[in-house]
Specification:
9 helices, alpha+beta, 4-stranded antiparallel beta sheet, 318 residues, 5-stranded mixed beta sheet
């Protein structure tokens, strides 16, 4: 069961779960076999290698191309651009079976607060935004800085909002019991952080650039490197979840999750920009990525991707 920004419950589960979260991402689905059953850890790699009957990347890419061509024809005929992922996007196989199909049920937000998880055992500390100092040693991988602003549809800053991130390590491995693919864990990297947006809506994280990782959508399927973002409003019911990608990733055209957003401009809004001014000399490369909560240029969110559109934080507060 999931909750959208208006405090309504969705009766069915949301697709794809990575680590802590939100909601969706690729990890919970990554290690399920064709019968939607969890593949034991010892068998996961073997199942991936030996599944000769699985569809190839070429099969999936051909389907993605066909959907894209049909969408371009629709645009040419005057259809409105699609700014959010399709619920039934055939190349993303589990989307056909796992997205919500039932109507939303309204719930009392105050009642939900009594049973919802806490944001943490203490107030958010400034050091929690640095994912590279949480253990006794330095994590392995390319150190990066990710910063930006949370804005409403009119460009106004959204201050005082809780922003959480989670991600794979540099080898593409999550600290999650269901992620058992043969890549090393990093004892000095957990992959989670949080901060509060400033008066100008700004956030900033120091972390390690995540690696790509395999998943079981089709034979030799890999997810582009990405970081999951969760934003909270004033209540637990006001939450949106999205993903940030890195520029120039060669896996973009091959990934059915990324391609389930059929509009190129909408996909581009999920990709951060390299920022040399943000880059720290002899320290870390910098990437900027703004999150827009409302309007036609709003950032894609998992709330909207897998159920009736979940409105943004500022709308929920009005």
């Amino acid at each position: 069961m999931t909750i959208d920004a208006h405090g309504t419950h969705r009766a069915d589960s949301r697709p794809e779960q990575d680590a802590a979260v939100p909601g969706i991402a690729a990890q919970d689905a990554d290690w399920q076999d064709e019968n939607n059953e969890l593949v034991p850890a010892a068998e996961a790699h073997a199942a991936h290698v030996l599944d000769a009957a699985a569809e190839s990347q070429a099969d999936i890419s051909a389907e993605i191309a066909a959907v894209g061509e049909a969408y371009r024809r629709e645009l040419g005929d005057g259809a409105a651009p699609e700014t959010q992922p399709r619920l039934d996007f055939a190349p993303y196989r589990s989307s056909l079976l796992r997205h919500p199909t039932k109507s939303l049920h309204h719930a009392d937000p105050e009642t939900i607060e009594l049973y919802s998880p806490a944001f943490g055992h203490q107030d958010v500390h400034a050091l929690e935004s640095d994912l590279t100092i949480q253990h006794n040693g330095e994590p392995l991988g390319e150190r990066i800085i990710v910063a930006g602003k949370v804005l409403d549809g009119d460009g106004r800053p959204v201050a005082g909002q809780l922003v959480e991130i989670w991600q794979a390590n540099a080898a593409g491995r999550y600290v999650h019991k269901r992620d058992q693919h043969p890549a090393p864990l990093d004892p000095n990297f957990t992959g989670v952080g949080r901060c509060i947006t400033g008066p100008d809506g700004s956030y900033r994280f120091t972390t390690i650039k995540p690696g790509a990782y395999p998943w079981k959508n089709h034979l030799n399927a890999w997810r582009p490197a990405h970081i999951h973002f969760s934003l909270f409003g004033q209540e637990f019911t006001q939450r949106i979840v999205t993903q940030m990608y890195f520029p120039g990733d060669q896996l973009f055209p091959l990934d059915p999750i990324y391609q389930s957003i059929v509009d190129q401009d909408a996909r581009d809004r999920l990709v951060a920009n390299y920022d040399h001014e943000l880059t720290g000399p002899e320290w870390a490369l910098g990437y900027t990525w703004d999150i827009i909560l409302t309007g036609s240029k709003r950032t894609w969110t998992e709330n909207e991707a897998f159920g009736t559109a979940g409105d943004s934080i500022d709308e929920a507060e009005e």
